[in-house]
Design goal:
Largest sheet: 5 strands, mixed, barrel
Order of helices and strands: HHHHHEEEEE
Structural class: alpha+beta
Distance between the termini: 82 Å
Shape: rod-shaped
Amino acid sequence: MDAVFWIVLGVVLAVAEIFTTTLFLIMFGVGAFAAAGAAALGAPVALQAVIFAVVSALSVVVVRPVVRRHARPSLETGEQPFGVEALEGATAVVLEPVDADRGMVKIDGELWTARSYDATRTYAEGERVQVIKVRGATALVWQDDISTPGELPEAKR
């Protein structure tokens, strides 16, 4: 019966972690699962509680900092970004006019819905823009410093 209690506690803590995403409650969930293992092996309740406390504390002190360090965005760590993170800062070409409510751009050969990062700005078809941020499946874009197709910067004319 003790093992069931620890398993239920571990599951509750794991589910709660899904909503907090702090990587704190899951460490206590690991401790609860360790205590469930001890209970299944016939350990007394006092030993189960000690195992829960020790495994939880070790998880918080040792594992959590390592996981958080590796979970930081690559821009903070200096590593090469990948996935959606790699799109931030990329150049895109406007395929359908982009404003605060709608738009379509092409980023590295892929079509993305887009919105203007500055709600007062609009971008016409063919203009080059820069991806500032990605929210879900929508790129928030801003004017690019590079000229639009067909135009030359002042220095190159």
